[in-house]
Automatic annotation (TrEMBL):
PANTHER family associated with the record: HIGH-AFFINITY BRANCHED-CHAIN AMINO ACID TRANSPORT SYSTEM PERMEASE, HIGH-AFFINITY BRANCHED-CHAIN AMINO ACID TRANSPORT SYSTEM PERMEASE PROTEIN LIVM
Species for this entry: Ruegeria halocynthiae
Superkingdom classification of source: Bacteria
UniProt-recorded name of the protein: Amino acid/amide ABC transporter membrane protein 2, HAAT family
Entry keywords, A to Z: Cell membrane, Membrane, Transmembrane, Transmembrane helix
Record localization: Cell membrane
Pfam family, one: BPD_transp_2
InterPro entries per the UniProt record, alphabetical: ABC_transp_permease, LivM-like
GO molecular function, one term: branched-chain amino acid transmembrane transporter activity
GO CC annotation: plasma membrane
Topology in membrane: Multi-pass membrane protein
Signal peptide: none
Length: 365
């Protein structure tokens, strides 16, 4: 078991505990960056899809995981980012300008939406955001001259410094683009949590009454959280549109919003690692089911025809299992396993027993 002796406050808020942990992250990043050389195009595309979902999960994690505001409407902001990016590119704006502008515009939309939502809590906020997701479908259809309506839009490759970046023609450069965005967003998220603003988010999540007593402006903090969450989600939406190539109003359905929320719950609410772990589950589950069906059909005989609703049914059962047995998600389970090995053989029998506690000030909400 490694014990880190901290001598100043800066050691307590640094992004990683020590050089050993930092070196592990660098090795992982190097292995992922080299994926185009050790993965074929199919699995490289699946890994790219996982990274895009992880970016979207980071966006929702800011709002739900660290500010405590439930949202079932982030598919709407994925759509805003996607359409903003393609429309700007169609008007002649270079991708390197259009892409961050798409995120900025989505953040402005999110801040505008946050104004009427500031007084809502819990299930009421979830219903409000769910209504936004449903409404976005109609907005895309009604704004047909801009969005293409039901026919949708098509976005091929983009040029970056004279090099073509396309999901199909050049899967390697497109993967590196997505990876670069994921790394930048993750580093920004880490530094946000170290800043006073990020700590305000966590204070609002834990208890609004206590946060207000400490001088936190609740309305301002929630509005900023909404804006940042939607901005990051808009970037993921822009990448998702480039990954899909063709998209319309049905691409960003309310099902995507539900998948996003389930993803961060399974991965681990309130942790950056949870967004990536949840994205791995949601990204590779369809392929795992497809491979499992083919293997079972070859072993036992039978049909390999797709069963309607099988993917969502299994995903729902996984979610229920985590809620019942491991509310902290995959990352929480990993922390417990790591702690068990670090303390072995000095662990206690009830060390990982779930503690049922309730903050009394929450009753004053």
């Amino acid at each position: 078991m490694r014990i880190i002796f901290k001598t100043n406050y800066m050691q307590d808020i640094r992004p990683w505990k020590d050089g050993y942990q930092f070196s592990l992250y660098l090795i992982l990043l190097a292995a992922v960056a080299a994926a185009p050389w050790w993965l074929d195009d199919f699995y490289l595309g699946e890994l790219t899809n996982v990274l895009i979902w992880a970016i979207a999960g980071l966006g929702l994690m800011i709002l739900t995981g660290h500010t405590g505001q439930a949202s079932l409407g982030h598919a709407a902001f994925l759509a805003v980012g996607c359409y903003a990016n393609v429309i700007l590119i169609e008007t002649g704006v270079p991708f390197l300008i259009a892409f961050p502008l798409a995120g900025l515009l989505t953040g402005i939309v999110g801040a505008t939406v946050a104004i009427p939502a500031l007084r809502l809590h819990g299930i009421y906020l979830a219903i409000f955001t769910l209504a936004l997701s449903v409404l976005m479908d109609d907005i895309i259809v009604l704004a047909e001259p801009i969005t293409g309506g039901v026919s949708g839009k098509y976005l091929g490759g983009v040029e970056i410094f004279g090099h073509l970046v396309d999901r199909w023609a050049t899967p390697g450069p497109f993967f590196w683009l997505v990876l670069a965005v994921a790394v930048i967003v993750t580093l920004g998220y880490i530094n946000l949590l170290r800043a006073p603003l990020g700590r305000s988010f966590i204070a609002v999540r834990d208890s609004e009454v206590s946060a207000q007593a400490m001088g936190v402006d609740i309305a301002r903090t929630k509005a900023i959280s909404f804006a940042l969450s939607c901005a990051v989600t808009g970037l993921a939406g822009a990448l998702m549109g480039m990954f899909a190539g063709a998209f319309n109003n049905e691409t960003f359905s309310v099902v995507i919003s539900i998948q996003l929320l389930m993803m961060i719950v399974i991965g681990g609410l309130g942790s950056i690692h949870g967004a990536f772990l949840g994205a791995i589950v949601i990204g590779f589950l369809p392929q795992f089911l497809s491979i499992s069906k083919e293997y079972a059909a070859a072993l036992f005989g039978g049909s390999t025809v797709a069963i309607p609703g099988l993917e969502f049914g299994i995903f729902g059962m996984i979610l229920i299992a985590f809620i019942l047995f491991e509310p902290m998600g995959l990352y929480g389970r990993w922390l417990k396993i790591r702690t068990w090995f670090e303390l072995f053989p000095f662990y206690r029998k009830d060390m990982f027993k779930r503690q049922k506690s309730y903050l009394k000030t929450e009753r004053l909400r």
